[in-house]
Specification:
Elements (H helix, E strand, L loop, with lengths): L14 E3 L4 E3 L1 E2 L9 H11 L8 E8 L9 E7 L4 E7 L7 H12 L4 H14 L7 H9 L13 E7 L4 H12 L4 E5 L1 E5 L2 E5 L1
Parallel strand pairs: 6-7, 7-8
Antiparallel strand pairs: 1-2, 3-9, 4-5, 5-6, 9-10
Amino acid sequence: MAVFSGRSQLPMPIYEFASEEIRPLLKTTFSQMQLQERRDLQRLLRANISVVAPDTLVIAEEFGGWDESRRRIDILGIDRDANLVVVELKRTEDGGHMELQAIRYAAMVSTMTFDQAADVFGRYLAQIGDADTDARAELLDFLGWNEPDEDAFAQDVRIVLASAEFARELTTSVLWLIERGIDIRCVRLQPYDHGGRVLVDV
């Protein structure tokens, strides 16, 4: 998976090797292919989060567990090192101001405890029809722990921004944050139209 930097990098063309010729696939947009941000992108990535955040367990979708705010994290996860992972999605061609949103979300969840995460995870499992799974046991198993370790839990929050493209202002901000020790990355999702089927170069 390539992590997009602030330097000008154009995605390489994707080609189809047909029987008589090599044909470039047509770049398109998610909106042109009638894919919605929440109904399609978020739903599909939630079930296959490793596409944008390998070794991550999704513990919540549309998470908004704070008072006096209607803002919601698209996908909240946890990685193998017990760090929380904030995943912000956009189907736009420039990413909007998603880095600013994600920083705010990361700060809001940074004090989450293991017990709070297990409770959030339990509600998420019930939401997706998996209420029989023991959220606490599943979380411990994913982390490789026998019992909760609050001193090791959520010591950092990682940020993953996934969008069809990113404006230079956004990537400049992200690079500046990386230089100052913030774990944040941009993952570009470039859709292609292949006879009505959507292929995505990640």
